[in-house]
Amino acid sequence: MTAESDQARRQQLGEFLRSQRSRLTPDLFGLQGGARRRTPGLRREEVAQLAGLSTTWYTWLEQGRDISLSAHALGRLANVLNFSTAERAYLFDLAGKRDPQASTEAEPAAPPALLAALDTIAGPAYLLDHLWNALGWNAQAAELFGGWLDGDNDRNLLAYIFLSPAARDLIENWEGRARRVIAEFRIDYGHHIEEEAMQALVSGLTARSPFFAQAWPIHSVIGREGGLRRFNHPTRGALEFQQITLSPTTRPDLKFVMLV
């Protein structure tokens, strides 16, 4: 990040806080309004006191100065300003911090419309959560991924790739793909590093897969980009697809994967 973009981000943060502060009325917090009150909404010192912050530090935040608050202090500020989920996420993005609440709140089940959309795809398609568990899939995906989406199997994609012999036979250049999958998964791991289920998944894979145990400590990180995927299917032979991965705007923690 350049100095110019960093300054622009701090300026946007200050403007955002001022805008949100001005829309709150003192009576919501049991504070005195009065005709002599010239500040619309809450005063800076009132927000600071309610959030347990120094008035000086909060003022500097609104002024766009180069300071940093802890993630927990930002969380208190979001609570005082009564932020929506989207506003809270925007606050943490502007502040360059990870929201500790984001990794502890359980997400609701996959939206029914997303699950229904899987059956409208002509090729294999499936829906993953942030742990890479399959939440839904179509018949074409079940037929392609024997040992994962067919029958009564572990629905976790990582467990399938690293623990199932069927995956090694199906995926062309299994070792290269497996290393890339680990690098792609690093991003989700970083977003949910404090989650017990995430730690349990990584610990289990490390204990049961020598390949995963060897590759995981390398700390490779690659964005999930899709692209060419080749398979050696036991009955259909050599297959080739282009993989497309979409993130629903209402559920960015999910991945809608299509093989075209």
UniProtKB/TrEMBL annotation:
Record-annotated membrane-spanning stretches: none
> Per its UniProt record, what Pfam families does this chain match?
HTH_31, MLTR_LBD
**Annotated signal sequence range:** none
Q: What is this protein called?
A: Transcriptional regulator
What GO molecular function annotations does the UniProt record carry, in alphabetical order? Answer: DNA binding
- Entry superkingdom: Bacteria
Which part of the chain is the HTH cro/C1-type domain? 16-88
Please name the CDD domains in this protein's record.
Answer: HTH_XRE
